[in-house]
Amino acid sequence: MDSFEENTKSFISWLGQLGVRMNSKMALVDLRAEGRGRGVVATGDFEEEEVIFTIPRSAVLNIENITNFKVNTLEGLPSWLALMAIMIRESQCNSSKWAPYFEILPRQLDSLIFWSDSELLELQASTVVKKIGKSSAEELFRENAILLGSTDTDLCHRVASIIMAYAFDIPDTLNEAVVDGNEDDGDDLVSENGEDEKIILSMVPLADLLNADGDKNNARLSCDNGDLEMRAIKPIGRGEEILNDYGQLPRADLLRRYGYVTDQYTIYDVAEISTENIIAAFRSGTTFSDFPFLPLDKADLDRRIEIAERENVFEDSYDIAHAGSDMLCIPDELLALLYLLLLDKDNLMPILNAQRAIPSRSKLATELVGRVLTRLLQLRESEYKTTIEEDEETLRSSNLAPRIRMALEVRVGEKRILREAMTEATSFVGDNKRMREEQKKASSGLERKRNAGETNNVAKKKSRLR
User: Fold this and answer.
1) Which of 36, 56, 223, 386 could form a disulfide with 390 if both were Cys (CB 3.0 to 4.6 A apart)?
2) Helices and strands counted in the chain (H then E)
3) At residue 286, what are phi and psi to the nearest 5 degrees?
4) β-pair type (227-232, 243-244)
């Protein structure tokens, strides 16, 4: 028996000691032959809603179950950092009850925080690179080294990445929030959900060993009965792997958080287009120089942005996605922003004065909005150093390093979405009568008349001099 199997056996025994109850129709299995670690498989048939295993609260690693910290020492820390401190301190304690659990956690991860600079370059213009946050994380590690109990940056990154990949949000049983969560990072130790229920970021042994699949997801962790229960959400046949789901994560975020990509999450891919780049294009004198509308002066552009902010359609960036039954390829908010930037002044004023609402999507999708959006999408695609055709050809190679292949799959997915969005944008046929296109045409007509008048005057003067 190798150490992998020994650690699994010890872990299962430890679960029993903590009161974890496992259905006899499930088994923890070795999936290394498939290039994976451990997984949970059905050894018998499960009915929908049948309990697969039950985990008591005392077997969950979080702020409620710590022994090596006083609660108040964690106050004010970002949630993931506080859980990091708990895990590192517990791992340093020889008598920690969590030791068998720590032994089965991964020693090596492929999440983006561990990629070299040259490997990250393979992601090209994917905005996921800006979300890694390695420098800011390391600054927090240094500032809190005493509390963390370690100055080992590699260890800190490993523990933080395990939390990002494995932790669950579960309802908090304490009456008050013990640790202030960081509402901006989405990984709070104790935070509030949309119904004002306190939730706590936790490591849940066994539950976190379920692999995930967006299509084949057949189980879900439930917190309804005090204890935590993993339940079947549909019938599971004997021999099937029991699978959780990460939610609708793009493959770029799957790679950032979990260190792998899979075709099952392709439908959730997005390509981001930044509002900063959109505004820069409208400020530029060259981006739309061949378009039939006049450039906006700074005051007019700022006024239109203010309207977009007031109408809640101005965002830092916009996600372009695969069109589906519940997902639009091009979001309404992006169309509304472009519509406001292209609307003529006569039709802008009623919206500015709150006398008229921003129209429906069908009216936002004017032919001019479609052309402008197509140009913006083309500019976004040009930020990538290679074309989608070149990438697809490279992907056909069988000798690519795993991280290079994953980077290729991410950037190809994003480029496909941009192409899909261009196709949709070129199909816009809405009337341009309220667009600044008409304004420029009228202005051009006046300019022609003015020039003609000046020419006639010159001719008349010449004739008088003769």
Assistant:
1) 386
2) 17, 13
3) -115, -30
4) unpaired
Q: What angle do CA 126, 132, 134 make, to 5 degrees?
A: 140
Q: From CA 101, how far away is CA 174, in angstroms rounded?
A: 24
Q: What is the token pair recorded at 381?
A: 């695609």
Instruction: Give the length of the chain.
Output: 466
In sequence order, the 6+-apart residues with CB closer than 8 A to the CB of 308 are 314, 336, 337, 340
Three-state SS at 187: coil
pLDDT along the chain (466 residues), means of 10: 90 97 96 91 97 96 77 77 92 90 92 96 97 94 91 95 94 48 38 61 96 92 88 97 93 95 93 96 89 87 96 97 83 97 94 93 95 98 97 93 97 97 96 76 49 45 33
Phi, psi angle pair for 391, to nearest 5°: -65, -40
Alpha-carbon gap, residue 374 to 289, rounded angstroms? 15
The identity of residue 40, as a single letter, is V
Cβ-contact 147, 85 below 8 angstroms: yes
Joined together, the tokens standing for residue 392 give 């697809």
In terms of phi and psi (left: phi > 0; alpha: psi -120 to 50; beta: otherwise), the region of 49 is left
Report the run of H or E that residue 249 belongs to, with start and end: none
Coil vs helix vs strand at 240: coil
| pLDDT given for residue 182 in this prediction | 34
Distances (CA, A) of 111 to 154, 259, 408: 13, 4, 15
CB neighbour list of residue 149: distance below 8 Å, 6 or more residues apart: 85, 88, 89, 92
Kindly report the three-state secondary structure assignment for every residue of 116-158: CHHHHHCCCCCHHHHHCCHHHHHHHHHHCHHHHCCCCHHHHHH
Burial (CB count within 10 angstroms: exposed 0-12, middle 13-18, buried 19+), residue 422: buried
Distance CA 258, CA 247 (A): 13
pLDDT value of position 422: 97
Q: What amino acid occupies position 257?
A: R
| pLDDT of amino acid 257 | 94
CA torsion sign for 193, 197, 198, 202 is negative
Handedness of CA 76, 79, 80, 82 (dihedral sign): positive
What SS3 class is residue 387?
A: coil
Res 79: pLDDT: 82
User: H or E element: which one contains 375?
Assistant: helix 367-382
